[in-house]
């Protein structure tokens, strides 16, 4: 084993030690895969310069995991964002299916005879996410902004570029959902609604898994937390707060059928919401709960966790 291989093995062993300290089974699976992929990529690189760069990137992520395990709330929030697609490659994989609508007709070209001058198409899912304050890093858009972006030039010469620029810069401000939920129908006799629902709702991301349900459970106080895969080296209350903050960055995209929308006085389509235990940042309009006497006692006993 040469010096480069020894360095990679050392980082990998240190990475695995930190992974075993992570409090949640899903986090351990995600970062074990990241450690394996990062170290394997470094081993396969023949150029010493690029091998060091890849190993440095893997080592940096390992140090973030270590800081999270030591109680740094910013580092813990960052590894949660990595694991649940708030940042990084997974975020793109969650968003990519929503950036197009195969069922929508192609819009006419802005410049006659030039196919490349067609404007972007906003899918129903992306439209719901762009116009909701619960799924945006910035203020939500109004529906009119999608049809007539505020950056449109006065002259039509640059309209094509302006529309695509606006489309690109705005979807990047969206927090993607982990999956698309379906609002349960209250009419059990409506047997024909399943076909229309399946055609309108497409599978993305973590559809068919219980990832979101596990997160909600981690923000509560179950009598037996071991069955939820939570092995805490950090204070459980501190961990619950981190997961509650994560839920505030995880919009839930729900499809509501037209029939169900009539009953709820809403039009059919997609709605954006947050889990009941989610903590949304004050800057986006939701106030945090008032502290109780128990909260004050806990804060006094754990000053470093605030």
Describe this protein's structure:
The protein is mainly alpha-helical. Helices cover 48% and strands 4% of the residues. A 3-stranded mixed β-sheet has the order 1-2-3. The chain is globular, with a radius of gyration of 23 Å. The relative contact order is 0.10.
List keywords for this structure.
mainly alpha; 3-stranded mixed sheet; 4% strand; globular
User: Sheet with the most strands?
Assistant: 3 strands, mixed
Oligomer: single chain
Percent of residues in helical segments?
A: 40-55%
Task: Flag low-confidence runs.
Answer: 282-288
Q: What is the N-to-C succession of helices and strands? A: HHHHHHHHEHHHEHEH
Structure summary, number of beta strands: 3
Strand content: under 5%
What's the helix count?
A: 13
Instruction: Tell me, rounded to a whole number, the average pLDDT.
Output: 84
Q: How are strands sequenced across the largest beta sheet?
A: 1-2-3
Structural class: mainly alpha
Tell me, briefly, the overall form. Answer: globular
What's the Cα radius of gyration?
A: 23 Å
- Distance N terminus to C terminus? 45 Å
Give a brief description:
With 306 residues, the protein is mostly helical. The protein has helices at 3-21, 25-44, 48-69, 73-83, 89-95, 124-130, 143-147, 159-171, 193-200, 211-218, 236-247, 258-263, 293-301; strands spanning 180-182, 252-256, 269-273.
């Amino acid at each position: 084993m040469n010096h480069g291989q020894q360095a990679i093995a050392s980082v990998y062993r240190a990475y695995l030690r930190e992974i075993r300290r992570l409090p949640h089974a899903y986090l351990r699976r995600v970062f074990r895969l990241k450690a394996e992929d990062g170290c394997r990529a470094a081993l396969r690189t023949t150029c010493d310069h690029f091998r060091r760069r890849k190993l440095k990137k893997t080592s940096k992520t390992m140090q973030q995991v270590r800081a999270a395990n030591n109680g740094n709330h910013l580092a813990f929030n960052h590894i949660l964002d990595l694991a649940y697609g708030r940042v990084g490659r997974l975020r793109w994989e969650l968003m990519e299916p929503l950036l197009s609508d195969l069922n929508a007709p192609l819009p006419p070209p802005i410049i006659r005879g030039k196919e490349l001058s067609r404007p972007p198409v906003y899918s129903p899912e992306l439209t719901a996410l762009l116009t909701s304050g619960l799924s945006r890093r910035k203020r939500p858009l109004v529906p009119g902004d999608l049809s007539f972006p505020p950056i449109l030039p006065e002259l039509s010469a640059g309209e094509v570029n302006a529309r695509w620029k606006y489309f690109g810069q705005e979807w990047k401000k969206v927090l993607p959902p982990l999956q698309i939920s379906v609002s349960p129908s209250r009419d059990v006799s409506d047997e024909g609604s399943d076909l229309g629902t399946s055609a309108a709702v497409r599978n993305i991301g973590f559809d068919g898994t219980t990832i979101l349900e596990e997160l909600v459970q981690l923000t509560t106080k179950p009598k037996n937390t071991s069955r939820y895969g939570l092995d805490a080296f950090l204070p459980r209350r501190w961990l619950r707060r981190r997961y509650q903050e994560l839920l505030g960055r995880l919009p839930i995209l729900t499809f509501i059928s037209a029939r169900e929308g009539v009953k709820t006085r809403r039009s059919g389509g997609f709605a954006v919401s947050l889990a009941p235990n989610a903590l949304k940042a004050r800057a986006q309009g939701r106030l945090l709960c008032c502290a109780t006497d128990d909260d004050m006692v806990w804060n006094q006993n754990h000053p470093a966790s605030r």
